[in-house]
Write a structure and sequence with these properties.
Number of strands: 10
CATH superfamily: Metal-dependent hydrolases
Structural class: alpha/beta
Strand order of the largest sheet: 1-2-3-4-7-8-9-10
Helix content: 40-55%
CATH class: Alpha Beta
CATH architecture: Alpha-Beta Barrel
Number of domains: 1
Shape: globular
Length: 358
C-alpha cells in the first residue's frame, strides 16, 4: 500500500509538471557567459519620457535620491493625460523650487469641447500659456487616433484642427513627444503565430484586433502624415514609433523627415534580440535617438544600462510577456552613448541646464 501511494504521488507530480502553463514556465539557463549588471549609467543621462503625478517636496526629495543612484542628470516630467494649465504651472513651480537644474516639465493638449468653433485657437492659446509657465515640451498621448473622439466619431492623428498647436511648438522650439498606437502584434489575431500572444492572454484589454475598428497601419500612416505636414515642428516618436522590430522602415522615415526623432521607452525586448542590427542603427542615427523610460521603476533602468553599455549575452528582459526570448547587449560606443544619454536632449529641448554633463 505504501509503495502504491508513492507511485501515485510520483505520477501526479509528473502529470503536473507536464501541464504547467506558459506563464509558469521559468527555465533556468545553464549557459555560463560573462555578466555585467550596471546599476548606474556610464554617463549622466536625461530621461525625456517620465511620468510623475506627485511633485510634493517629499516626493521630489526621494526622486533626487533615485536619480543620483542611477546617474540621471535631468528628469523631464510628462503630465498624466489631461495635464495642462494649472497642473503645469504648479508642477514647474514645485520642481524649480526644489531643484531647477534637475527637473523640467511638459504639458498636454487641452482636448475639451473639441466641437467648438474656436477650439483650435483656444488649444493653441493654452499651449502658449503653458510654455510661458515653463513647459519645455508637449506630450501627446495615444488617445490621439484611438479613444479621442468628437460628435462625428474617432479623431485621426493628423486631424487639421490641431495644426495651430503644432505651429506654436514650431515657433517656440518646443518638441512634441507623441505616442501613437501600440505594438503591431496587439492589433493581430491572438493565434499561435502572434509573438505577443502571452501579453494578449494576460492583458486582454490590450487586444486591439477585437476592440477597435481601425488598424495599426491606419494609425501609423496618420502619424507619419502629421510629421510630413509639419516639417518645422520637432516630433519625438515615442517607443521608436513601434518600429524597433523593423529598423529598415524606421530608417526610411528618419531619412525622409529630418524633423523626427525617436526615444527608446518600452522597446528593450525588440532591440535586445537584434543587437548587431540595433547597434548599426544607433550608430548611424546617433543624432536622432533619445533616452526615455516611460514607466518609472528604478530597478528596470538597470536593464537599459546593461542593454546599451555591455556586450552581455542571453539575459532576462524586463517583462517576459513583451516577448518570450532573451536579450543581448548592444555595446554602444562612448560617443553614441553620450548623444543618446544627454547630448541630443540638450540640443532639442529649450532651457535645460548642461551643468554636470561631460
Amino acid at each position: 500500500m505504501h509503495r502504491f501511494l508513492l507511485l501515485l504521488l510520483c505520477l501526479v507530480g509528473v502529470a503536473a509538471a507536464q501541464s504547467i502553463s506558459i506563464e509558469e514556465f521559468e527555465p533556468k539557463s545553464t549557459l555560463r557567459v560573462p555578466e555585467h549588471k550596471p546599476t548606474r549609467a556610464k554617463f549622466p543621462f536625461i530621461d525625456v519620457h517620465n511620468h510623475q503625478r506627485d511633485v510634493t517636496p517629499d516626493r521630489l526629495k526621494r526622486l533626487i535620491e533615485d536619480m543620483d543612484s542611477l546617474n540621471m542628470g535631468i528628469l523631464i516630467n510628462s503630465p498624466v493625460n489631461g495635464g495642462s494649465g494649472k497642473w503645469v504651472a504648479n508642477a514647474v513651480t514645485a520642481m524649480k523650487a526644489h531643484s531647477a537644474a534637475r527637473f523640467a516639465a511638459m504639458t498636454n493638449i487641452d482636448t475639451s469641447n473639441l466641437d467648438a468653433p474656436d477650439y483650435s485657437q483656444r488649444a493653441a492659446a493654452q499651449l502658449k500659456a503653458d510654455i510661458q509657465a515653463g513647459a519645455i515640451g508637449l506630450k501627446v498621448w495615444k488617445q490621439f487616433g484611438t479613444t479621442l473622439s468628437d460628435s462625428q466619431g474617432r479623431i485621426k492623428v493628423d486631424d487639421p484642427r490641431f495644426d495651430a498647436v503644432w505651429a506654436v511648438c514650431a515657433k517656440h522650439g518646443i518638441p512634441v513627444l507623441i505616442h501613437t498606437a501600440d505594438p503591431w502584434g496587439l492589433f493581430q489575431p491572438m493565434d499561435k503565430n502572434n509573438e505577443r500572444w502571452l501579453e494578449l492572454k494576460i492583458q486582454t484589454r490590450r487586444n486591439q484586433s477585437e476592440q477597435t475598428n481601425y488598424t495599426w497601419e491606419q494609425l501609423i500612416a496618420e502619424q507619419h502624415n502629421l510629421f510630413t505636414r509639419h516639417p518645422q515642428t520637432i516630433f519625438i516618436n515615442a517607443h521608436m514609433g513601434w518600429l524597433a522590430n523593423n529598423l529598415d522602415r524606421l530608417a526610411e522615415l528618419l531619412d525622409r523627415l529630418p524633423n523626427v526623432y525617436v526615444e527608446i521607452g518600452a522597446i528593450t525586448s525588440d532591440l535586445g534580440r537584434q543587437p548587431r542590427a540595433a547597434k548599426r542603427f544607433f550608430t548611424k542615427y546617433q543624432d536622432r535617438v533619445l533616452f526615455g523610460k516611460d514607466a518609472y521603476n528604478v530597478v528596470e533602468y538597470h536593464t537599459y544600462f546593461r542593454l546599451l553599455e555591455t556586450d552581455d549575452e542571453y539575459f532576462d528582459p524586463i517583462r517576459k510577456y513583451h516577448g518570450i526570448w532573451k536579450l543581448y547587449g548592444l555595446d554602444l560606443s562612448d560617443d553614441v552613448l553620450k548623444k543618446l544619454y544627454y547630448k541630443n536632449a540638450l540640443r532639442i529641448f529649450p532651457g535645460l541646464s548642461s551643468a554636470g554633463f561631460p
